[in-house]
Amino acid sequence: MIVGIVDNAHFPPWDLAVGAPLSEEQRRVFRQRAGQPFPAEEVAAAHDELEQLSSILADEGVEVRRPEPRDHAASYAGLGWESTGLYDAMPRDLLLVVGDEIIEAPMAWRSRHHAASAYRPLLKDYFRRGARWTSPPKPELIDELYVDGWTDQPDGEPFRSVITEYEPTFDAADFIRCGRDIFGQRSHVTNGMGIEWLRRHLGDHYRVHEVTLADDHPMHIDASLMPLAPGKLLIHPDRVPEVPELFKDWEVRSAPQPVIPDGHPLYMTSKWINMNVLMIAEDRMVVEEQDRPMQELAESWGITPILCPFRNFNSFGGSFHCATVDVRRRGELRSYL
Length: 337
Ligand code: ARG
Hints:
Blueprint: E1 2-3, H1 16-19, H2 24-32, H3 40-59, E2 76-78, E3 81-83, H4 91-94, E4 95-98, E5 101-104, H5 120-128, E6 132-134, E7 175-178, E8 181-184, H6 192-202, E9 207-210, E10 225-229, E11 232-235, E12 251-254, E13 278-281, E14 284-288, H7 292-300, E15 304-308, H8 311-314, E16 324-325
Parallel strand pairs: 5-6, 8-9, 11-12, 14-15
Antiparallel strand pairs: 1-16, 2-3, 4-5, 7-8, 10-11, 13-14
The structure holds arginine.
Arginine binds next to helix 4.
């Protein structure tokens, strides 16, 4: 598994596309602090939690790989635009592993245009050792990709994305895989062409299903729909109006109420980041140390909780699933449909 790093994390330059998936309050902070580093003490505390996660995983027999720190304040340019970076904390957002193939996501945020670079040394090594390594058409990220003057859809109206269908874009974390079936959602970073690109690229060996969830600000599916193990599906209590057909014989449970206190900074996500757990085997779940309700859910489902402090990391926009990417797992490739 790859575990991300939070070193040198920066707020990206402000634009509509960055603001779209955030709450009003989060937008205010991102606008104010655009281009600035995240608070040093918060980075240090999150760094420490990532170290603990890495050693817990290693103790569990997982081979852990980490990227090297980079400078996210350095600016770079595309055709008619300029940006600085974000962080390398969430490898799940950008690396999609399907069988022996690793796909670099064509991300829609300009601040993440070079996100894969952090992982290139690892990707080259996997390639040398036999992995297939793919990068979809490199997105241009010019103004045509973004809806001019975008505003939130009014309450109760269908989701209105900040991105257009100018070119395929997706984040890897808008997809979640069960064997040969991959579930994906349109979001503020994933468009219809992005989903279709993946579907055609993977061909007949995999089925890509588009799901529509009840998420007002969708970006990344892994705090909404989380298959934990064959037969066990964890869902957000309100975001999954209809459980996809594949899961009809599965036991479906709603995530327990989050226990993250109100004052705790969450710069980019909702408190439902509590359901962003990491399964390291069908019966072993990495779960936040203070999250007793999620630990109880695991226990009552025959899953052993493995505790790790991660609240400081949560502030940066993810939890255990986001912070990691499992490159290789033992077991057979199953078909659940
Ligand atoms: N959008 C989700 C929420 O706010 C968080 C998803 C985070 N996932 C990730 N891979 N970074 O509830």
